[in-house]
Amino acid sequence: MPIGPKTAMLAGALATCAVAIGGARTADTNFAETLNERAATAIAKAGGRNVSARFTNRMGWPTRHPTLSGGENLDTNTRDRVAKAVAAVPGIGGINWADGTLLADAGDTTFSPLHCQDDVNALLNARSIRFEESSSNLDLASQPLLDEVAAALRPCLGSIIAITGHTDASGPEPGNLALSRQRAFAVQNALMRRGIPADGLRARGVGSQLPIDGLAPEDPANRRIEFSVVATTPVQPTPVDTPGPR
Fold this sequence. Notes:
- The protein is an alpha/beta fold.
- The chain folds into 2 domains: 6-107; 110-234, CATH 3.30.1330.60.
- Helix content is 39%, strand content 17%.
- The chain is built from 5 helices and 7 strands, in the order αββαββααβαββ.
- The strands form 2 sheets. A 4-stranded mixed β-sheet has the order 4-7-5-6, covered by helices on one side. The protein has a 3-stranded mixed β-sheet with strand order 1-2-3, with helices on one face.
- It is globular, with a radius of gyration of 21 Å.
- The two termini are 40 Å apart.
């Protein structure tokens, strides 16, 4: 069957797009590999033994916002020094640890709380995000509340949204820590399903280490999810920091 001119033009356009996308991904991959090499050097100089940086997001695409893993036995000061050393590498953006520790940002950056945090806190003061007992499975009754939380966060997209899971001290702390992390990640995934971009979400669990002021550590009211929403304003953006068209 003869191919019409419109079909030929469409096929050509699709081929051009495919080549462009493939070329862009190759360039991004090369850039990420360069950052990875520089990050490895910075980690070594900062004493980050067994620490590595991953420059791909959950979808496998290259990113300038690495996730650090390993080094669980390093003290807090060393972990902080390693994160800051990686963040200081030109071209690298926000840093976070695979275990949920909040990121360090490259360059001179100022942080300011956003009104979204107040809006979310107002929702959670009246109701709680609940889970099945001793589980990270979200209670069905909390789904409408998560819808409202996502709606409250949406005006502040582009900011950093930290999700922190807490437990009471009724069980062994290693189990509390693991459960608090799992619940924080469950909330993160629930927000992603509601359209909140993954790149702006940071989930972590702290177990029973931070009970509510005035409550005994064993009080069940310490089982909670908290949100922290901050805006980052780079003082002097670089070409890499400049957002592209959306």
